[in-house]
Automatic annotation (TrEMBL):
Name this protein carries in UniProt: (2Fe-2S)-binding protein
SUPFAM superfamilies to which the protein is assigned, alphabetical: 2Fe-2S ferredoxin-like, CO dehydrogenase ISP C-domain like
Entry keyword annotation includes Amino-acid biosynthesis: no
Domain of life: Bacteria
InterPro entries: 2Fe-2S-bd, 2Fe-2S-bd_dom_sf, 2Fe-2S_ferredoxin-like_sf, 2Fe-2S_ferredoxin-type, 2Fe2S_fd_BS, Beta-grasp_dom_sf, Diverse_Oxidoreductases
Keyword set, alphabetical order: 2Fe-2S, Iron, Iron-sulfur, Metal-binding, Oxidoreductase
Residue span(s) of domain 2Fe-2S ferredoxin-type: 15-89
PROSITE patterns for this protein: 2FE2S_FER_1, 2FE2S_FER_2
């Protein structure tokens, strides 16, 4: 990507800033209007999918400072917290990945990284959500293949499992 010009302190060939993405330092060198999605993909992080590029589908969902956002609508230059993609979640969401497989919650798989990131954020925020609350919280992520019942079933199963684990550990 081209190096920004006209920014205070920026000159040709000089990076604007760095971000931490999935635990790695990444140099942001795109123009000031570059989205987080564009910068992630330019840096080789492809788990966030480029689909609608308008914040309508959720395929590009990542965590920024632990909060789920659509990377296609965030200006990279304004992101100041750590970024975590589906790949960067590591073993933290193995239970979600397994539940998605067990409940047939994906077919083509294109939306799955964004769905898993959103589901992880939803469960981190409140593992005690009802099925209706989980359904509403997942509504911003579109799946054109499975419908949503299987996705919600998978997230609900993990929510219940995590609640039981928390109660057993308490």
């Amino acid at each position: 990507m081209p190096t920004p010009t006209g920014l205070p302190g920026a000159s040709a060939g000089e990076p604007v800033r760095t971000l931490t993405v999935d635990g790695a330092r990444v140099t942001i060198t795109g123009p000031p209007h570059a989205t987080l999605l564009d910068e992630l993909r330019a840096a080789g992080f492809t788990a966030a999918k480029a689909s609608c590029r308008r914040g309508e589908c959720g395929a590009c969902t990542v965590l920024v400072g632990g909060r789920a956002i659509m990377a296609c609508t965030a200006l990279a230059a304004l992101v100041s917290a750590d970024v975590t993609t589906a790949a960067g979640l590591g073993t933290a969401c193995d239970d979600l990945r397994a539940a998605f497989a067990d409940h047939a919650a994906f077919q083509c798989g294109f939306c799955t990284p964004g769905q898993v990131v959103r589901a992880e954020a939803v469960l981190r925020e409140d593992p005690h959500r009802s099925r209706d609350e989980i359904t509403r919280a997942m509504a911003g992520n579109v799946c054109r293949c499975t419908g949503y019942r299987q996705i919600v079933d998978a997230v609900c199963a993990v929510a219940q499992s995590r609640r039981l684990a928390m109660e057993a550990g308490a």
